[in-house]
Amino acid sequence: MRTLIFYLLVLSQAMCLAPAQAQSDPLLEAVAAGSLEEVERLVGAGAAINARNEDAETPLYVAAEKGHAAIVRLLLARGADVNLPTKNGEMALHAAAMNGDPGLLQALLEHGAPVNRANRDGERPLYWAAASGHGRLAKLLIDRGAEVDATDQRGNSALHGAVDAGHESAAWLLLNQGANPALRNAAGDTALDIARRRGFGDIAKLLQSDR
What we know:
Blueprint: H1 2-33, H2 36-44, H3 59-66, H4 69-77, H5 92-99, H6 102-110, H7 125-131, H8 135-143, H9 158-164, H10 168-176, H11 191-198, H12 201-209
Helix pairs in contact: 1-2, 1-3, 2-4, 3-4, 3-5, 4-6, 5-6, 5-7, 7-8, 7-9, 8-10, 9-10, 9-11, 10-12, 11-12
């Protein structure tokens, strides 16, 4: 009997929580699908604009990750919070930096997105832009105050990230913006060490010429 009562109590609590959870799902789904009209309809109908999914991703984060610039601008205009982190501490600006759309990144920056905020691994948006090969976005971030030699918890700078991923143009941009090629990560590696180990001859020449 006690087991039945406990089961009924748990079921009752789950049913009470379900509506609140379901309210956020349509907006997140519409954002992920890139449906601007549906997002606008849902937001206009009162959908929670800063709802979170199981990974604590907001509609703004999902829109930035998917590259839906028009939806990002709509959400920002309706008051979406640019400072809400995911479970791993990433902001919408991290997602935009990885996505590669300069206009999308600029929109977030204009609404106060924190340019030097790190996730739980110590990675900042500049690192994500560089490791994804987006030199133009890296320049935008640096122009807005991104610290070019900031390092993550493993001691890797944006230059380490660009070189490790084989992005020569991003590495050149960072060097041109004052990145220090002599920085060593926690493993003791400079960007040049990484380039040599990974067989990126052209990047190694670039790093050697900058010394």
